[in-house]
Design goal:
There is one protein chain. This protein is mainly beta. It is about 10% helix and about 40% strand. The protein has one domain.
């Protein structure tokens, strides 16, 4: 597609897309256009459903009071297993994203007792532009739509072991944001998990933060 050419999305496609998005994002009825609350009408040359994710190690195991773990910022030395961010705190040049769901997922191999501590003691903040908190609350208010769930039987002693997750691993169990967050080109963002009191885990462990997004490339 050449620069300045109109996208090939039909009006019907755009209207359907608007219907599956949360309030705040709607199709205008014109090819390649979306209306985003707080932003206005934008024309897009490309769009796809995607995720933005980052994994951070909770260390030390005895987490001191007021410790803040920051996601989407420190990406040096990380692999695709850890993150799909290529720049610290921002999207690649030319990319923008509409965030419609935020998920916190402690890694599946976290000890059951540790999982309970993380969920009960952690506090989360989604931040844009360094100082604009767009959503915050205890960890259960950011349930994971991903991960394991239920019980498993160990092979060593045939004991039944509970598997704990931050909410049910179902997209329906994590409501979409009523007002989606628009990450425009150059806009910075991060996600913080804070432990305000001493939280002592049995071992260090990893935790993911996952944004469900519509990844878009605006028409230039």
């Amino acid at each position: 597609m050449g620069k300045g050419n109109a996208p090939n999305y039909s009006a019907a496609f755009m209207n359907t897309l608007g219907q599956v998005m949360p309030p705040g994002v709607t199709g205008t009825g014109k090819p390649g256009e979306l209306f985003i609350e707080g932003v206005g009408v934008r024309k897009f040359a490309d769009m796809r459903q995607d995720i933005i994710y980052d994994r951070v190690l909770f260390t030390p195991a005895a987490i001191p009071a007021s410790t803040r773990f920051v996601f989407f910022r420190d990406i040096q030395g990380k692999t695709r297993q850890d993150t799909n961010m290529s720049q610290s705190g921002r999207l690649p040049q030319g990319d923008e994203a509409i965030v419609y769901r935020m998920n916190i997922m402690p890694q599946g191999d976290v000890d059951e007792a540790d999982m309970r501590l993380i969920i009960s003691q952690g506090y989360a903040e989604a931040v844009m532009d360094d100082d604009n908190t767009v959503k915050s609350g205890p960890l259960p208010t950011f349930p994971s739509a991903y991960g394991t769930y239920g019980n498993e039987q160990t092979t060593l002693n045939l004991a039944t072991v509970g598997v704990i997750t931050n909410g049910i691993p179902s997209a329906g169990a994590n409501p979409r944001l009523m007002i989606p967050h628009y990450i425009s080109e150059g806009r910075t963002f991060r996600f913080d998990i804070v432990f305000y009191t001493l939280t002592t885990l049995s071992a260090t462990c990893y935790c993911f933060v996952i944004y469900d997004v519509l990844r878009v490339r605006p028409l230039r």
